[in-house]
Amino acid sequence: PGSIYAANEWYVFKSTDYGATWSVKFSNYSGDLRKIAISKSGNIKTLYAALSDKVYASINGAESWVPAGSGLSDIKALGAGSVYAATSQGLYKGEISALEISSSAYTILSSTAPSGTNVTVTLPPGSFGSGVNLLVSIFNPSSISFTDSSVRPSAVGVSIQANISTQPAKAAAIVFSYKPQDAAGLDENKLAVIRLDDSGGYEVLPSTPDALSKTVSASTNHFSNFVLAQYSPSVSSSVPAPMSYPLPFNPYSHHSGMIIDRIKPSSQVRIFTITGQLVRELTADYSGKAVWDGRNGSGRMAASGVYIAVVKDGSAKTRRIKLVIEK
């Protein structure tokens, strides 16, 4: 009641007071916005905004949008439900799953691209409280560039969006089921799921590729955008310039921990106070990342302040990086 959506070539506007005042909720400054559509299933309302060649979706009242389809040509009309895009070259259909999460049972969400590529997300009971809805949508990550040459993205990405700002209390399983053309030119035995974060960094999730069944499985306790990619970390190079994020790190709000990134797999990471007292010892995983949950070796939460991480690889070369905890 009271909510109205309007659009022109550049913007989607929203009013929550029957049109008395308006705010911009989607912008495309090239003047390429074509159509908007709204669907409702139970308590879940999904909004769609179409440009000439792609579709975006939102389940949180247009506060944020995720890609829901790309590679289309000259969209003329947009229909909701199952998402239909009528273009100059034909009619396309995309299956996009938006569901209310059960707090007492397993919830399975999936999204299927027109090519047949599928991504499934499974959440265990207790992952969220009541009233949380999730939208899962596949997109083509061709516009995403990685400065790290060890990452070569495939043609498959997926966005997972909640209707409120929250993250799961338990890890969710993600399974990419891809087509051969999605991974053309890549080593399918080295495929991994990569999570993109809001700070512009990324995390290579521990993944299980199966080239025979054309699937890659991983788990995550943080929802955002994910890309299926070949990950081939160099094991012969010396320790590169490491980085840490988020910075500063708040262990009560950054539930995925502080990521110490761009280090060699199996590197030793020792975290000290600025007075030289050892706080924690970590080991980098196969993707060249170590995760600190903000606790010391006894399991107690470390105090706010500046810490020094000393990274040592197998050849005994070391690098130092500053860490900051702010609670």
Structure, explained:
The protein has strands at about 5, 10-15, 25, 35-40, 45-50, 55-60, 65-70, 75-80, 85, 90-100, 105-110, 120-125, 135-140, 150-160, 170-175, 190-195, 200-205, 205-210, 215-220, 225-230, 245, 260, 270-275, 280-285, 290, 305-310, 320-325. By secondary structure, the chain is mainly beta. Strands 8, 9, 10, 11, 12, 13, 14, 15, 16, 17, 18, 19 and 20 form a 13-stranded antiparallel β-sheet that branches. A 4-stranded antiparallel β-sheet has the order 4-5-6-7, with no helix packed on it. A 4-stranded antiparallel β-sheet has the order 24-23-26-27, with no helix packed on it. The radius of gyration is 22 Å and the shape is globular. The mean pLDDT is about 85.
Give the distance, in angstroms, between the N- and C-terminal Cα atoms. Answer: 39 Å
**What is the number of strand segments?**
27
Low-confidence stretches: none
- Range of strand content: over 45%
Mean pLDDT: 87
Question: What fraction, in percent, of the residue positions are helical?
Answer: under 10%
Secondary structure category = mainly beta
Largest sheet: 13 strands, antiparallel
Which shape, going by the Cα principal axes?
globular
> Strand-and-helix sequence, N→C?
EEEEEEEEEEEEEEEEEEEEEEEEEEE
Determine Rg (CA atoms, Å): 22 Å
Count of discrete alpha- or pi-helical segments spanning 4 or more residues:
0
